[in-house]
Automatic annotation (TrEMBL):
It catalyses: (2R,3S)-3-isopropylmalate = (2S)-2-isopropylmalate. GO terms for molecular function: 3-isopropylmalate dehydratase activity; 4 iron, 4 sulfur cluster binding; metal ion binding. [4Fe-4S] cluster binds at C351, C411, C414. GO terms for biological process: L-leucine biosynthetic process. The lineage of its organism: Bacteria, Bacillati, Actinomycetota, Actinomycetes, Micromonosporales. Residues 12-461 form the Aconitase/3-isopropylmalate dehydratase large subunit alpha/beta/alpha domain. It comes from Dactylosporangium aurantiacum. The keyword Lipoprotein does not apply. This is 3-isopropylmalate dehydratase large subunit. Pathway: Amino-acid biosynthesis; L-leucine biosynthesis; L-leucine from 3-methyl-2-oxobutanoate: step 2/4.
Amino acid sequence: MVGEARPRTLAEKVWDAHVVRAADGEPDLLYIDLHLLHEVTSPQAFDGLRLSGRTVRRTDLTIATEDHNTPTDNLLTISDPVSRLQIETLRRNCEEFKVRIHSLGDAQQGVVHVMGPQLGLTQPGMTIVCGDSHTSTHGAFGALAFGIGTSEVEHVLATQTLPQPHLKTMAVNVVGELAPGVTAKDLVLALITQVGTGGGRGHVVEYRGPAIEKMSMEGRMTVSNMSIEWGAKAGMIAPDETTFAYVEGREYAPKGEEWERAKAYWASLRTDEGAKFDREVTLDVTHLTPFVTWGTNPGQGAPLGASVPDPADFAEDADRVAAQKALEYMALTPGTPLRDVAVDVVFLGSCTNGRLEDLRAAAEVLRGRKVADSVRMLVVPGSASVRAAAEEEGLHEVFTAAGAEWRFAGCSMCLGMNPDTLKPGERSASTSNRNFEGRQGRGGRTHLVSPQVAAATAVVGRLAAPADLN
Ligand SMILES: CC(C)[C@H](C(=O)O)[C@@H](O)C(=O)O
Ligand code: SF4
């Protein structure tokens, strides 16, 4: 065929490269390059395989880790019976179906979305799925990565493919650059407050602009991680030198000539000039300052320097009602400066902000300071390997000297599926991604923050930024 190829977006390029079967009026059948598993969403999928007498088609493209139910106070005993059953089931399934697994105590165990990138399993241009909504994290590498349900997990285990309805694309054009002390987390929290939790519904999003290009891979993962929190199906960032430098040399990264070939292909994974997105939004970060949530969804946020909003000030009825309800649950009074909000617990961790860079940033703030007497601070590395790297740098000593708890890797207090939970009525500043009612424990109240704000808050005892410390 003569003539120029149609300009395509990054997402379309990755999609097109994975279509196994396409037919009019039907979903495309996509090939899946990497399937990640954890204990929560895999048991029924394995049961299904067993019932139908099927095997795992590509054990080499499938890998499991234990994260949601693992304890973070020790590596030996899972005392919670529900958690133990969940984890033992995953271990048995992986053994029976010959799936690689990183179990508690293994050097690579950790939150699934921290494990994949750190092993170099996550690579640009791949299709990546996992029975977990925050699979969007891997989009930071220019992979098309999204969460799937348990029946889809079974389908991928059996066939290494997945039928998918046609792609809807969206661009987030980030204008301006982040001021010093303002982070990827602030950016994504501000975005969700701007567009609302349904703002990206069903779309594969691409984050673009100078602030994104300047971001580290860790920062990009924080942004992509929270794509699902505003309804997007996936959140991609075009791979560049930062991406290549991160992937190079990791255990599963291509090596030698293969590396050169891979890199040349990855460099082509950019949205073409003239390619059309179904939707575009603009986020201006020029005047962005540290951002926190005050409500019970990630779109109920405000700059730390602001006050708890008055529901009456919301133009839309639905927002007004939601704010009213959120403030009741959060026990907050309109007009209270956010800096006056005292917290009981600070949680530093999760697949949003539990990587080495996040721990370094928080340690920087805590060095030579003390966690306030009224505060319990948990530092939970996203993976065993993050923990080991942090210890090599002595970060654990900074945390423990400040009075924080230095824990083992896992999802921990990001969600109440393990012993790390808030007690009813307790309030946290948390670097995780969801502040839903009861997310961190029944009756617990969550403020989403960056690692820097988490650390400063731990010192002050109230929501604070490093600039508030003297
Ligand atoms: C348990 C799992 C299915 C869930 C998800 O899909 O995201 C969890 O990881 C979460 O963050 O809420
Ligand atoms: S750290 Fe939190 S968001 Fe990430 S996978 Fe675990 S529970 Fe889900």
